[in-house]
Each structure stands twice: as structure tokens, then as C-alpha cells.
Known about the structure:
The structure holds two protein chains of two kinds.
Chain A: E1 4-7, E2 10-13, E3 19-25, E4 38-43, E5 50-54, E6 58-59, E7 67-72, E8 75-80, E9 89-95, E10 102-103, E11 107-111
Chain B: E1 3-6, E2 10-12, E3 18-25, E4 34-39, E5 45-51, E6 58-60, E7 68-73, E8 78-83, E9 92-98, E10 103-104, E11 108-112
Amino acid sequence: xxxxxxxxxxxxxxxxxxxxxxxxxxxxxxxxxxxxxxxxxxxxxxxxxxxxxxxxxxxxxxxxxxxxxxxxxxxxxxxxxxxxxxxxxxxxxxxxxxxxxxxxxxxxxxxx
Amino acid sequence: xxxxxxxxxxxxxxxxxxxxxxxxxxxxxxxxxxxxxxxxxxxxxxxxxxxxxxxxxxxxxxxxxxxxxxxxxxxxxxxxxxxxxxxxxxxxxxxxxxxxxxxxxxxxxxxxxx
Lengths: 112, 114
């Protein structure tokens, strides 16, 4: 199975600070169809996960543009340009290139 | 608008079975596969598998091949997750999510305890 390693596991930030989360895959996530099926989700406390980014860098519907995704192959990054209070929660990367699909262990974003 | 509404919380004893429902609305049910995700208390997300809503064919991740069954009631735009022979480690919140994971149900908390 593909292992996704997220770092850091805990991220402390102040409001307005820009932060990044890394997601590294044990295998390339480039599919034979040319797509890279790497997603980012935010799960706020007590809520269902919300999809932020799909196919590495595409912003989900209604997601603020302070979120951005980048990367290729095995290395991917989610960046938040100016953390807001509503961004607090746990961030997960997920790959859907190789079955079984897998999630990273999560990165908890908290206020410093 | 697109919604996935799951059935309510369940409290079961080890060895019992249960069936969780996920009712979809706001789109054509058979146009998108349905995926299932497990989240144990205080833990991360675990992908369980998916079901093709056109053919009814399920695909299970390795950890969920034994006691877990995905099914459909297409006429009711509803997907189901059945768990047989419940174990304490099945205690978790279970989510349905429409491909490509842009829409999620609210989650169903399953508690297994003697």
C-alpha cells in the first residue's frame, strides 16, 4: 500500500501567519492517464472532512484562495497564506492513484 | 444542493450486525461512485472502499474484506454499509463520501460495547 507521510504532525501558528504542510508518498502518484490523484482535506472538530484541493493544485468549490497546493511525483505541499481562525483543525492528504486509496496521518493546525 | 444524509448513531454488542444508510440527493445517484471512510475515536481517516453505483460492484480495502458489505438501493438513491459480527475495534464514525470526495455525509457513530 502507498504510505503518505505528513509533516509536521502538529503546527502552531498565529492568525495571519503563512504555513505549509508536506505530504510525501512512498510511490509516485502520477497515474498512467496523466493525472496525479492527490487531495487535501480539512477536518474541523466535530465535523466531516472538507475537500480543499484536488488533483494536487485545484481549489475546491467555495474554498478560499489563501489555500494552495503544489508538488509532483512523490512530494506535495499545502500552503495557507495567512491563517484565519476558521482554518484550525486537522489536515489530511489522500492519494487515489493506487488502490487501496490511502490517507496521511494528519497535521493538526492549532493557535500559538 | 447536493447532500448525503446518514442514519443515526448505533449502540451494539459484540457479535451483532448493523446497517448504516447514506441517502443522496441533489444529483443523479448513479452518476458517481460512493466511498466509505472509517474514523476511530481520536484517530485519523481510513479508506474502506467504494461501490460502483451503476453496477453495484463493491471494492474493499484489505482491512475491510471480511465482515463489511457495501450495497445500494438505487431507487431510493441510498448506499448502505453493513458490518457483521461486530467487534470492539469497529467502534468509530463511518462516513460516506461521493466521488471525488467533494461531498461527505455527516458521519454515523457506531459504538460496540458489551
